[in-house]
């Protein structure tokens, strides 16, 4: 599953990796933590596939990015944002079987199935 910047590029977004995460809350996006430790809270927007899959309005995520999506590609919508500074944390293409990307690393939470297992289940289901 590509990250948010990979999905953006596939949909005609800028070829760059986004824009620097700085200012209020910027330190939360690339903290000095272990991959499995949460760094900040993300709000999952209503009426999005990501919200449908995760089944929650907010979730704590890890974070290891110093840049973020600035301009969405064609047909993409924001599906998640950091609660602290509104940095885009998730994007998706409505109407597609499953085209979404997130800025965090859900694979690092392999031992916490209550948080992100449904995301991987949705990926497997969409691949059939």
Mean pLDDT: 80
Cα separation of the termini: 15 Å
Overall 3D geometry?
A: globular
What's the gyration radius in Å?
14 Å
Q: How many E strands?
A: 7
Main pleated sheet: 5 strands, antiparallel
Q: Structural class of the secondary structure composition?
A: alpha+beta
Strand arrangement within the widest β-sheet reads: 3-2-5-6-7
Q: Into which percentage range does the β-strand content fall?
A: 15-25%
Question: How would you spell out the order of helices and strands?
Answer: HEEHEEEEEH
CATH homologous superfamily - what is it?
Class I glutamine amidotransferase (GATase) domain
The tally of domains stands at 1
Q: Could you estimate the helical fraction of the residues in percent? A: 10-25%
Please give the count of helices.
3
Index terms:
single chain, 128 residues, alpha+beta, Rossmann fold, 5-stranded antiparallel sheet, 7 strands, 21% strand
Strand and helix layout:
Elements (H helix, E strand, L loop, with lengths): L3 H7 L8 E2 L19 E5 L4 H6 L3 E4 L5 E2 L8 E6 L5 E5 L7 E3 L10 H15 L1
How would you portray this structure in words?
- With 128 residues, this protein is of the alpha+beta class.
- The protein has a single domain (4-127), classed as Class I glutamine amidotransferase (GATase) domain (Rossmann fold), CATH 3.40.50.
- The protein contains 3 helices and 7 strands; from the N terminus they run αββαβββββα.
- It has helices at 4-10, 49-54, 113-127; strands at residues 19-20, 40-44, 58-61, 67-68, 77-82, 88-92, 100-102.
- The chain has a 5-stranded antiparallel sheet with strand order 3-2-5-6-7. A two-stranded antiparallel ribbon has the order 1-4.
- A hairpin with a 7-residue loop joins strand 6 (88-92) and strand 7.
- The chain is globular and about 35 Å long.
- The model has no long low-confidence stretch (mean pLDDT 80).
